[in-house]
Amino acid sequence: MRGRRRDVFVIRTFLTLVLLFYLGGTLGWILELFYRRIFSAKKWMNPGFLVGPCLPLYGFGLWVLYGLASIDFSSVPPVPRVFVRVLLIGVAMTVIEYIAGKIFIVGMHVKLWDYSQKWGNIEGIICPEFSLYWTLLGAFYCYVIHPIFYHIVNWFFDNLVLSFFLGAFFGILIVDLFYSFRILSKVRKFAAENHLTVRLQALQKNIAGLYDRRRFKHFVFTLRENLLAPEILRESVAQLKKKLPRRKKGKKDGDAKEKGGR
């Protein structure tokens, strides 16, 4: 009996994590898509490194937010309780952002975002301004949106037939990860050969521009198999090199910089 309860708990936890990852990744992708359209790139552009509409960073972020919102702080007085929870949210989201950014810079020579132009930034990966944004967004989730997600999770377990669609999402995500990392491996090879770190958004912009000039239909999915075509890659590289300073001997890898914070 105890073993059965443990198995049910494990399965329920796994499905909850997959569901939250799907919701967070998809909603985060939509949020970033409109952010780039309105504030950053000024055009429709895939905000992530995956081909599909999912940002894993937001999926992991929702895991953390859901967990923090579920912690019982009733033993803490009301005012300090809010402060402690919000502070934990800000620290946790900033740490997640730093770890994710660092992994791609070290492992793939790719910067998924760049805060180099922002005050107080650390390695262009995190900065006070966006840490504040994540803190406010996280606080809004905990005190306004969390009950909705809690209800969605409970509703999902009352309708487990939907787990089929969740499984389909998980399968597609795995395929997308393999496909996208294969493309990024090409970018990594170029970056390593030229001793630099490539800004993903700058690369996407250049490729989108090349597609426009060649009248390719790309919409938001700029990082796809066309990127692997030698003539496309060479032309994009030529455009990037005009903006990227060469690394001097004895110094660390330079960054593929472009004006703008994100």
Please describe what this structure looks like.
The protein is mostly helical and 262 residues long. The protein has a domain at 2-180. The protein contains 7 helices and 3 strands. The protein has a 3-stranded parallel beta sheet with strand order 1-2-3. The longest helix has 37 residues, at 2-38. It is globular. Residues 226-230 and 249-262 have low confidence and may be disordered.
Features:
mainly alpha; three-stranded parallel beta sheet; 7 helices; 3 strands; 262 residues; 66% helix; single chain; disordered C terminus
Poorly predicted parts:
226-230, 249-262
Structural class of the secondary elements? mainly alpha
Largest sheet features: 3 strands, parallel
Total DSSP E strands:
3
Let me know the average pLDDT.
Answer: 83
String of helices and strands: HHHEHHEHHE
Radius of gyration: 21 Å
Estimated helix fraction: 55-70%
Rounded to the nearest angstrom, the distance between the terminal CA atoms is 52 Å
Secondary structure tally, helices: 7
Strand content: under 5%
Shape, per Cα inertia axes = globular
Give the assembly state of these chains.
Answer: single chain
